Protein: C-type lectin domain-containing protein
Organism: Cyprinus carpio
Amino acid sequence: MADIYANGDFVRLKDNKQPTSVDKADQYAYGNSDDLDWDPKTKDIADASEHTFSSRKEKDPSCKAVLLAVLSVSLLVALLALCVLGILYSQLLRSSDLLKEQNRNAAVDIEIQEQNATDSPFEKRKYYYFSSEKLSWMESRDYCTKTGGQLVTITGKDDQYNLASIKLKEPHWIGLHDLYTEGHWMWVDNTTLSGETFWHKRTAGLSEPDNWTQEDSDGEDCACLETESEWFDASCSKLKKFIWEK
Ligand SMILES: [Ca+2]
Ligand SMILES: [Ca+2]
């Protein structure tokens, strides 16, 4: 008796003879005989082998269907996961922008220096605040309004001297503009500029306000306090620190 192994299947032969009916049964039971050297006359065994293959072939379509179904479900899950990730990423970006805006406002709030002007015997109690953040004139005005104050107004010598005593290291916006009518300067509380002014004066050329258009074709419609505490008009879109009062 000899044992033959073919592709992992097992067929038992007796003394190199053709398989007996029991052997055929074994072959039928154990399957693949393609790799064995069978006598062509053993048609039954060939038929049995073919029958085995036919059975497997018949199973293939269902296997493919299952694989396709699994693949489809996997793709659907992957697509849903991508959608969820997209939504989460979008929400993350919005949160990040909101956080940046909050941090920006917080930075302005935290780094504010408060200057108490109560020592002045001539003026009612005023508090001046100096921003560390640079904003356009409009943004500065809106920020001050939002915080319950306004861009600083300078309505007399005492206001001017109080601010001059601070010794500013760079220009700051003040609440003065001629946005509505060129040359007609108004404070942010809608009062017209009157009385003594502190515009920078030049010995040659135009003094301030000169509505210079070299850097901004719209001219200069907003006023700032320069380091010598003199007033200059400047392009409202420029970013500067600002002073507000409460
Ligand atoms: Ca102007
Ligand atoms: Ca100017």
Notes: The helical segments are 21-30, 43-110, 137-146, 157-164. The chain has two domains: 1-110, 113-245. The chain has four helices and ten strands. Residues 113-245 form a domain with the Mannose-Binding Protein A; Chain A fold (CATH 3.10.100.10).
